[in-house]
Amino acid sequence: MTIKEVAEKFGLTNDTLRYYEKVGLIGPVKKNKSGIRDYNEADLKRIEFIKCMRSAGLPIEVLKKYVDLFDEGADTVGERRKLLEDQRDILKEKIDKMNEAYDRLNYKIKMYNENKLEDLLKEGKQ
Amino acid sequence: MTIKEVAEKFGLTNDTLRYYEKVGLIGPVKKNKSGIRDYNEADLKRIEFIKCMRSAGLPIEVLKKYVDLFDEGADTVGERRKLLEDQRDILKEKIDKMNEAYDRLNYKIKMYNENKLEDLLKEGKQ
DNA sequence: ATATGACTTAGACTTAGCTCTAAGTCAAGC
DNA sequence: GCTTGACTTAGAGCTAAGTCTAAGTCATAT
Lengths: 126, 126
Prior knowledge:
6 helices, DNA-binding, homodimer, elongated, mainly alpha
């Protein structure tokens, strides 16, 4: 699979894919005799995982650490689990904060819809 | 209330508070005769709101637009509601993505805890 | 055989959101 | 009256994560 196809498949850009490879998040991807990347199944799975985690805001540095530990083998299982647990906890906190803001936005929108404009003046409400 | 007290109250830095003021997100905050900021109740409510929205990832530019519309008065009510709805929808999408990543992290952690290490090799699983 | 268009590289540039620095003012304590 | 420490300013610097540029290679269509 070419870089263009992969980029389209996952909604990334060619640049981003090469960037991820450069920083060691994926690959190194096999290249044909004229130096053109040909992504295989394992590459695609890794990219899909990375994309999911990146879109949730996990830092590249952390993801790199994880894939590095993975490559180091079974000895790093404990450290990997710890890393995942830490990231999960951080993510949970972020989700909570976002839900709070979400509720608050909805409250405000409700006030607009009900024309309760006085309530909006108290910016701190709810 | 001094900048230091406000910063501590909300878990921000003095720099961030001055930065928010500089870009027009808050204030301008009243200053005493020797030029030192003294935050009032309205300032605090605004800061609390901004902090909540910022911690959910709403861009400063968007928040500035909102507070500017607010200051322009009742004519902008429709535009304000639209802005809030747009941001709510964007936020909803982000929350969904984060929940997806959250579930996936938990699945992986579960595999680690149950020592089902083969499953981890399929990075794309679930 | 030459032009086109997709790929390659290294490295410079961009953006958002702070964060830090330098130089200065001022009130309070010694 | 001098020092200390908290504040002030303008503006430079930083970090993360891309994004873009320039120069080059290569396979294919004309």
